[in-house]
Amino acid sequence: MLRKLGRLLMYLKNVLLLIVLCPVAALLRRCSPAYRHLWLVSERGNDARDNGYWFYRYLRTQHPDANACYVIDPDSPDYARVSQLGRTVRQGTLQHYLQYLAADYLVGSHVQPAAPNLMIFYHLRQIGVHPRGVQAFLQHGIIKDDMQWMRYPRLKVDFFASGAKMEYDYLKSEFGFPDGVVRYTGLCRFDNLMRGKKQTNQVLVMPTWRGSRYPQGEAFCSTSFYQHFQALLSSPELLRLLEAHDLQLIFYPHIELQKELDRFESPSPRILLADWRSYDVQTLLMDCCMLITDYSSVYFDVGYMEKPVIYYQFDKEEFRKIHYQKGYFSYEEHGFGPVVESLESLLQALQRYAENGFGMEPEYLARLEAFFPVRDEQNCERTWQAITELGEKS
Known about the structure:
This protein is 41% helix and 13% strand. The protein is an alpha/beta fold. The strands form three sheets. Strands 3-2-1-4-5-7-8 form a seven-stranded parallel β-sheet, with helices on both faces. Helix 2 links the parallel strand 1 (38-42) and strand 2. The longest helix has 30 residues, at 2-31.
């Protein structure tokens, strides 16, 4: 009861702030160049590693005359990199609220784009309370599952970026957005993937989370997720394989599970437990020679670079019960690598890839090309063109 009351008070506080600050923001737009024709860009507010960052970087380097500002906490490990590009504002401050209400373009990789509180403004938009600017959703990753909360009219945005043809067709036919909202532009971070980096001897293990209802704290150690991945990390056969092929394994759980990282143990210097503050996801993806995941959509990024993937899916039924429901994507029919359910099968598949120089088989390359008919370095450019077109029409 107290939690519901607290949440209600937060919503009321933000509505009152909008009422009070809207006329102030309108005045600033007319009187201050810093608030005029503003592009406000963000991710979660404490990071800069995803589509929001790469779009902001594109703005600052390719359109330096654009009045752009990035939302980020100065305590973020990414702050220095962003601040070197241009202006920043701290999430949730008075200045952030005023910029949010004054901006012509609100751009972000999460809903609601660039908002002082992403979930509160996501719900406020549903009931018609929203800022004046074009709201451009760059996405956090390619959608493959049936994510009901991202369907229209639950999610209301003016621009919804799609990163692949199959995903675009799914969003257009199933998510119910008005014509012109969903655009096949590609994801902004893909531009950097195509530039690539020299491949190392790193095998990246990056599993996704299991939803907010999954056990946390001490109870996490009794979950199938912990037991299966700890069994992998402590496997003598894995250690022998890493030694034989001079490989390093990097274990990097989803950011929602990073708080449980200390519960895992690494028995060898060849196995690294990587935390989000010290390791950049895209750098890990670009550096790895292959990816082992369960259901994380980062395999689309790895596939985009023509690197092999193994899907380690030991809890299919449980995952669908507590997390996202299946959408259009079938791992068996559309995936970029084999699907395995046991540790033994996983290690056998890893051995095969190591012996073959970590190349993708023709079958999976064909699937990749069908999924990504366009792979280039123009994703940010297409996104810019689509958003500015919307701004000119509004």
